[in-house]
Specification:
It catalyses: pyridoxine 5'-phosphate + O2 = pyridoxal 5'-phosphate + H2O2; pyridoxamine 5'-phosphate + O2 + H2O = pyridoxal 5'-phosphate + H2O2 + NH4(+). Belongs to the pyridoxamine 5'-phosphate oxidase family. Residues 17-141 form the Pyridoxamine 5'-phosphate oxidase N-terminal domain. Strands 1, 2, 3, 4, 5, 6, 7, 8 and 9 form a nine-stranded antiparallel sheet that branches. It is elongated and about 55 Å long. It has a domain at 9-101 and 153-194: Electron Transport, Fmn-binding Protein, Chain A (Pnp Oxidase, Chain A). The chain has five helices and nine strands, in the order αββββαββαααβββ. α4 (113-121) packs across α5 (131-144). The chain is an alpha+beta fold.
């Protein structure tokens, strides 16, 4: 498959994502998010990409988690989204900042009640004595919020402002099609076709 790159990486990403929603069985929004710790050791985990626009790619998490500690310490991240059934992937590298609190509030309000409760109940990434302890904490939070669950102050979004976006499509005989969009600092993109 040959990529028709155009000049707008977000338009191309949206087109590919819409096609992935139709083709992927589970989680077409799952990305492998990479960060590094204070010692330069990389770590990666799967998270869900919830929003994107020319302002950035947005994920949501606990601000006290390991991933948040690493993102806040370096201000940098990368992710790769892979749509196996379409034999495509997109790789993004960029700077990271916390999303606007109003944006985080709006997304939190759209989540199911169980997920909202979980955001309060889980001390994400920290040691847990037992599942019973977690279940007890869930009950405490359910009692605290019998109706509307407000967003915890320790939970919200991160926006990745892309400096580089690469599109990859599988090619016959491993002769893949690749385009890299690099931010040029003038609100535009330098576009290069890459060898497989």
């Amino acid at each position: 498959m040959e990529i028709v790159a155009g000049t707008d990486p977000f338009g191309l990403f949206q087109t590919w994502f819409d096609e992935a929603v139709k083709a992927e069985i589970n989680d077409p929004d799952a990305v492998a998010l990479a960060s590094v710790d204070a010692n330069g050791m990389p770590s990666v985990r799967i998270v869900l990409l919830k929003e994107w626009s020319p302002a950035g790619f947005v994920i949501y998490t606990n601000y006290e988690s390991r991933k948040a500690d690493e993102l806040l310490a370096t201000g940098k991240a990368a992710f790769c989204i892979h749509w196996k059934s379409l034999r495509r992937q997109v790789r993004v590298v960029g700077s990271v900042s916390k999303a606007d609190p109003v944006q985080s509030d709006a997304y939190f309000a759209s989540r199911g009640r169980g997920s909202q409760i979980g955001a309060w109940a889980s001390a994400q990434s920290r040691p847990l004595t037992s599942r019973d302890d977690l279940a007890a904490q869930v009950r405490v939070v359910e009692d605290r919020f019998p109706d509307i669950v407000t967003r915890p102050p320790h939970w919200g979004g991160f926006s990745i402002d892309p400096q580089e976006i690469e599109f990859w499509a599988d090619g016959e005989h491993r002769l893949h099609d690749r385009f890299r969009f690099t931010a040029n600092g003038k609100a535009g993109w330098d576009i290069q076709r890459l060898n497989p």
